[in-house]
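// run 5 | inverse folding | seed 20
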């Protein structure tokens, strides 16, 4: 894709469907590549780093500095072979996450959400999925964790425009996981004490496959 087309693509919001949700399944490869090639991969912060254990600051400036951060996040996500990445996972105290994640039907979703908030689901729509979950900030560790198999997130895109994102299955888990990060929660915080201890043991016994920031 020509550079001019890439710049135009980043100038506006993603299209929305008839219900107002972003259509984040189109031109995924082109959009992810355009972001990533502008970015610099950064090491991943791991559990114990203070930035991961507190609520991040709201994004209020949607200028060039945020655009560069998003590009760096996409680059870092690709290096770590992740499907979602929150800003505090590369040490930045801002409420923004990126994702490049398939859903259970195999559709690829790529996008950016700033200042996300999970929409509370009514009880009759809460079907739990207890699949395994992992986290780039708890490298090499996995544990089953029950989460709703459908999620909706509201927020803003990288230009400050309002957005609504929804997902099912694995993508729903991603949306919940990344939103949690920005409010100071890791997935292991939702485990039992025994399961959390086991996840930290897994992490201690294995080497991460990507650069991480050591906790002093």
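// decoded
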């Amino acid at each position: 894709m020509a550079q001019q087309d890439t710049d135009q693509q980043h100038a506006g919001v993603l299209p929305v469907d008839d219900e107002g949700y972003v259509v984040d399944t189109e031109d995924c490869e082109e959009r992810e590549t355009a972001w990533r090639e502008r970015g610099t991969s950064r090491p991943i912060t791991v559990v114990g780093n203070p930035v991961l254990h507190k609520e991040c600051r709201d994004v209020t400036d949607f200028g060039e500095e945020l655009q560069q951060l998003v590009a760096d996040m996409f680059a870092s996500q690709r290096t770590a072979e992740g499907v979602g990445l929150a800003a505090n996972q590369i040490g930045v105290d801002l409420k923004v996450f990126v994702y490049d994640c398939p859903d259970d039907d195999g559709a690829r979703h790529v996008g950016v959400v700033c200042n996300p908030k999970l929409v509370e689901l009514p009880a009759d729509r809460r079907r739990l999925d207890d699949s395994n979950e992992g986290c780039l900030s708890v490298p090499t560790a996995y544990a089953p964790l029950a989460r709703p198999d459908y999620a909706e997130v509201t927020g803003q895109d990288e230009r400050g425009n309002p957005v609504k994102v929804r997902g099912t299955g694995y993508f729903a888990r991603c949306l919940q996981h990344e939103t949690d990060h920005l409010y100071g929660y890791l997935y292991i915080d939702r485990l039992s004490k025994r399961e959390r201890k086991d996840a930290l043991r897994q992490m201690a016994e294995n080497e991460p496959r990507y650069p991480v920031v050591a906790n002093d």
